[in-house]
Design brief:
- With 292 residues, this protein is an alpha+beta fold.
- It folds into two domains: 132 residues, Alpha-Beta Plaits (2-Layer Sandwich), CATH 3.30.70; 153 residues, no CATH class.
- Helices cover 57% and strands 9% of the residues.
- The chain has a five-stranded mixed sheet.
- A hairpin with a 5-residue loop joins strand 3 and strand 4.
- Helix 6 runs parallel beside helix 9 and helix 6 packs across helix 11.
- The longest helix has 24 residues.
């Protein structure tokens, strides 16, 4: 079902749809988004798209599709029709209750430093066209185009992983690897504070070889062929870093790693654990180089 309301897309380049689905969102991402993209392409070039998982108004996937203003109505029609068909064929087996939503949303909003949040729980198995607003303050107005290009790349990389059936354990490893690439590009000065020695020591024999492989990717990024996976992540981060002001690089690039974890469906606590392991691995790689 569709929630009717304003159809202003917020920024003329993008159509924004919120796909409310309270259960496991992997099937929606893996099946619905490619179906929408394929129909919009109609045998031609596929449009740029990116997605995120979010909680406000109920669990949903935020889908953004780049389109010329003259194509916006068609894009909305395709999204709505494909979404309705998906919701009929694969309705969410989970339904969040209003009181359950309000309790959890209050905690999440507080954690994100939000002054307030949407109180009304959106209907499960529904689509709503809600404006996409660029976060110029967070990413920088001048850099916003490069950041959105990265969002498209990141969504493609994650969609490829999800389609391949990546397991929960593999997702955590992927997040560690993504943070490793970001931190290796930024250098030791950008490492977050904290020791994490106990976490690292238990997995040192796995993490150091992973760190060496990611360092090799970073060092030969310019020579890597186009593709998906972590090599593609190394390429998109290299491209993004070139477009960012140096003062913005640490915050923006680590935020992008956080958003990749979100796309993979890795929860915040697990992501923080993965980021801590990556930071400690980079420190040990540095010590390894000094002692070599």
């Amino acid at each position: 079902m569709s929630r009717r309301g304003a159809i202003d897309v917020g920024h003329h380049e993008w159509v924004s749809a919120h796909l409310f689905y309270h259960g496991d969102q992997d099937p929606l991402i893996v099946r619905l988004i490619p179906a929408i993209v394929a129909e919009l392409a109609d045998g031609g070039d596929r449009p740029d798209v990116f997605f995120l998982r979010y909680w406000e108004a109920g669990p949903h996937v935020r889908l953004r599709v780049r389109a010329e203003p003259a194509e916006h109505d068609r894009v909305r029609r395709v999204i709505e029709a494909r979404s309705r068909a998906f919701f009929r064929a694969c309705p969410s087996a989970v339904a969040v209750r209003q009181e359950e939503y309000e309790t959890r949303a209050a905690l999440l909003a507080r954690g994100e430093g939000m002054a307030g949040f949407t109180r009304e729980l959106a209907q499960n198995n529904s689509v709503s066209f809600i404006p996409y607003r660029r976060e110029n303050r967070r990413y920088g107005r001048v850099s916003m185009g490069a950041v959105e290009k990265h969002f498209v790349d990141s969504s493609r990389i994650v969609l490829s992983m999800l389609t391949a059936g990546v397991t929960p354990e593999q997702r955590v490893t992927a997040v560690v690897a993504m943070y490793l690439i970001v931190l290796l590009r930024l250098g030791a000065g950008a490492l977050p504070r904290g020791d994490h020695a106990d976490l690292f020591a238990r997995q040192r024999d796995v993490l150091l070889p992973l760190g060496r492989r990611m360092r090799a990717l970073v060092e030969r990024t310019d020579r890597l062929p186009p593709g998906d996976g972590l090599a593609s992540w190394a390429q998109t981060m290299a491209g993004l870093q070139k477009e960012l002001e140096p003062r913005r690089q640490p915050a923006v690039m680590t935020t992008c790693a956080h958003l990749a974890a979100n796309r993979l469906g890795v929860d915040l606590l697990t992501e923080q654990y993965a980021a801590a392991l990556a930071a400690r691995t980079v420190l040990d790689l540095g010590e390894e180089e000094i002692s070599a």
